[in-house]
Amino acid sequence: MIENIKQLLQNAQLQQQVKEAANLAEAIKLITSVGAQKGYSFTQESVAQVLSRLMLEGHELTEADLLSIAGALPPPCNTKMRNTSCWI
Predict the structure, then answer these.
(1) What's the rounded Cα separation, in Å, for the pair 66 and 55?
(2) H helices within 1-88, ranges in order?
(3) Model pTM?
(4) Of 13, 19, 82, 85, which is most buried by a Cβ count within 10 Å?
């Protein structure tokens, strides 16, 4: 199931929708729904557990990544790009 969720999250359109989610709970609902459309039978609880496990194991998604995707954190600062702001 972890690999299925990772595969889903590689989709740019889903990434954008998750970023626009109001909070982490809404992002989990979205991942669950998209998974169902792809034929997976995830529950919201199982998606939350997998995301937590991924964060704890230090895989691709960190807590900051998830919060950023869910819109709870500003994007990381990139001082090499113009027109970016840094949150200090």
Answers:
(1) 9
(2) 2-8, 12-19, 24-37, 44-57, 63-69
(3) 0.61
(4) 19
